[in-house]
UniProtKB/TrEMBL annotation:
A Pfam family: AA_kinase
InterPro entries for this protein: AceGlu_kinase-like_sf (IPR036393), Asp/Glu/Uridylate_kinase (IPR001048), G5K_ProB (IPR041739), Glu/AcGlu_kinase (IPR001057), Glu_5kinase (IPR011529), Glu_5kinase/COase_Synthase (IPR005715), PUA (IPR002478), PUA-like_sf (IPR015947)
GO biological process annotation, one example: L-proline biosynthetic process
Pathways per UniProt: Amino-acid biosynthesis; L-proline biosynthesis; L-glutamate 5-semialdehyde from L-glutamate: step 1/2
Name by which UniProt lists this protein: Glutamate 5-kinase
Domain PUA: from-to ranges: 277-350
Residues at which ATP binds: 11
Gene Ontology cellular-component terms listed: cytosol
Entry keywords, A to Z: Amino-acid biosynthesis, ATP-binding, Cytoplasm, Kinase, Nucleotide-binding, Proline biosynthesis, Transferase
Family: Belongs to the glutamate 5-kinase family.
Organism, scientific name: Aquiflexum gelatinilyticum
Function: Catalyzes the transfer of a phosphate group to glutamate to form L-glutamate 5-phosphate.
Principal location class: cytoplasm
Amino acid sequence: MLQKPKILVIKIGSNVLTKEGGQPDVERMDSLVNQIASLKSERIKILLVSSGAVAFGRGEIKLPEKTDPILKKQIWASSGQIELINTYKRLFKNHEINISQILVTKEDFRDRKHYLNMRNCLLGLIAQGIVPVINENDTVAITELMFTDNDELASLTAAMVNADSLILLTNVDGIFNGNPADPDSKLISLIGNKMPDLGGIISPLKSSFGRGGMLTKTNMAKKAAELGIQVWIANGKKEDILLNVFSQKASSTYFEPNQRKQSPKKWLAHGDQYFKGEVVINDGAKTALSSNKISSLLPVGIISVKGDFSKGDIIRITDENGLKIGLGKAEYPASIVQEKIGLKNQKPFIHYDYLYLFQNG
C-alpha cells in the first residue's frame, strides 16, 4: 500500500546525470531539482544521494591513458565533486532551498557513536529544511573501503535517518525479468516481501559510469524493504519521474515494505561487511534466537569466538555449520567473552535490542 513519504531518500545515478558522451546533463539535474522542490513544498523531508562526481571530473580534466586507474578516479572525483555540488547549489537556490554537502566512507557507518553523530547531523539538517547532498568520498575510499555503489549508500542512509521511503533513479524503468534491452523482457512492477530470490532472472549488466548493476540495486532495495522502507527503482531520464512515481503514473518497480524495525537493528542490518569478530553458537542458542520469544545471546550458547574486538563492535553470529544467523553489538570484548564461553548466569553478550537476525537465520 503506497504511503505518502515523510522522510524520503532519493538516489540519482551517474547515468541519469550524464549524457551519452559523458558530459554533465545539467538540464536533467535542473528538472530533478524542480521536482524535489515540488515534493518539499508538500512538507516531505528529502535527502539526496547523488553520484556524478567522477563523471563530472572526467569531463573537466583529461588524464594520460597510462595514469593508474585508482589515481584517475581519485583525481576526477576530487575535481568533479566541486562542480557537482556547485551545480546543485545554483539550481536549488532558484527555489530558495539551501543544501549541504556530506562526503562519507564505509568507516563512517562502522562505529556506533560515529554513526549516531552523523545521523544527528542529517536529522538536524532536514529539520531546518536543508537538503543534504550525500556522496561517497571517492578520494579516500578505495578497494575494501568502497561502497558497492551509491545504491548501498542510499539504503544505509535511509535506514540511518529512519526514512519511510527510498527512490533509486537509474536509466531503466525498474527491474526486468531479463535484459532490459530485450523486447521480450517484462518489467516487474511489484516485488513483495515474500518473493523468492530474483538473482537468477536479473540481468548482471552494469552501467558505463556507475559501479553497480541491477542485481546490486535489487539486493539493496530488498534489504531496505525488509527494514520497513518502501522502495522504488525508476528511470531518472524520464520527465517528471519523481512526481509521477508518487501519483502512480510512472513505470517503476515497487518493493513492498515489511514491518518497520527499531533504529539499532537498522544500523546492524547493513553490518555484514563491517563486523569486527564472529561467534559460533550451539543449536540451543540458535533455536532460542529464531523463536518468537524475545531472546538475547548469552555466553552459555557460544561455542567459539573469532577475532579481536571491543565492546560496541559489530559481531557476526554463525551456527556450527557456518550458516550466518545474524549480527549484533558486543556487550563486552573478545578477551572477556572467551573467558565466559559456555558459562550460565552471565549477562548477555548481545542484547536483543542490538540483535539483527537474517531472514534465513
